[in-house]
Task: structure prediction
Amino acid sequence: MTDSPLVSRPGGSGVLANRTVARIGYGAMQLPRLQEDEAGAIALVRQAIDLGVNHIDTAQFYGNGFSNSVIRQTLRTEDDVVVATKVGATPAPGGPRPMRLAQRPEELRASVEDNLRSLGTETLDLVNLRRTDSATGQGLQASGEQVVDLDDQLSALTTLRDQGKIRAIGLSSVSRDVVRRALPAGIACVQNAYSLLSREDEDLLRLCTDEDIAWVPYFPLGSAFPHLPKVTDEAVVREVAASLGVTASQIGLAWLLHHAPNTFLIPGTASAEHLAANVAVGAITLDQETLSRLDAVQPGV
Result:
């Protein structure tokens, strides 16, 4: 993939799954908020691409296939977009949660096939295995038959890679030890909860940097979960934002881009305005004094 001379890639470019992509992508988790306005959802994804985004993160369990359907209808061959998806969970419409774990090898294979069908492609660019190892993760926890050995899961995914159904393998919600164990399989990226105020995985981030593995933080601005504090509530972040004439959210995202060169952002939104603001983060420069102030902020507990 080569950058078009007519399109400025937001946040600059980096290598993800052996492809050169913009460091600011788009996460499709919130697209199902537009389920009653499919045309609006398609227009939003098209807006992202027109703004230079060429990395989209999705999953079959986002809206029980809605996000994948929208992406399939929006993308054109000439867009040359890297689409990353996930396995390890499956939709659970009508259940207490919108998804349930699906960790067994046969479930991973079935999920890959589901993603291939809903995205309308013969090969998935990047498949992230969602596990439940990370201390910073939140939500579903494996038990019973859903406690599956990592080697069995990687064996299923590497076989699918050998068959040409997926191009690259990533990991999500994992610990440093799990990533180390997985290195021989060839890991393209790691997705964990991480933000300015949630830096428990700093050692894992350093490992990824050393191993040329892309770092794709989710909950990059924190969340409603108590142990993932909201970055926009931090006084220093607000002060820096005011001094630069941008929003606190933009500062939280800009810090991530400055903090590690292998970081790729996938902020999600169902709002065209917020999408434009997220992409604009790539133009924010934080000088060393500002970075030192942000770095000195004590992470939450």
The CA atoms of residues 55 and 82 lie 5 Å apart. Residues 105-119 form the longest helix (15 residues). The two ends are 41 Å apart (CA to CA). The chain has one domain: 13-295.
